[in-house]
Every structure is written in C-alpha cells, then in structure tokens.
Amino acid sequence: APWIAAAPLGDHPALARLVLHRYDQALGHDRTVTARTRTPAAAA
User: Fold this and answer.
1) Mean pLDDT per 10-residue run, the chain (44 residues)?
2) How many structural domains comprise the chain?
3) Which residues contact 20 (CB under 8 A, 6 or more apart)?
4) Taking the complete model, does pTM exceed 0.85, yes or no?
5) The domain containing residue 37 runs over which residues?
C-alpha cells in the first residue's frame, strides 16, 4: 500500500521529486531531474 507510506509526506509531485532527489544525493547518485525530464531514465 504505497499510498499509506506516502501519506505523511503528502502526495504532491514536486515533494516526491524532492524526496527522491535527496535520497539519490545521500546514496551518491546525484541525478539531476529538471521540469523537462521528470524521470531519471529520461535524464540519462
């Protein structure tokens, strides 16, 4: 039930991108995702 886990953070797409960006930074995989490339696969 992913919606339950996401509930405390909210479901706004920009917040989700920020959380994933910070997670990637913490892992050392700093993938820049812009408004034009919303998925990491498109940014690569």
Assistant:
1) 58 81 84 57 53
2) 1
3) 33
4) no
5) 2-43
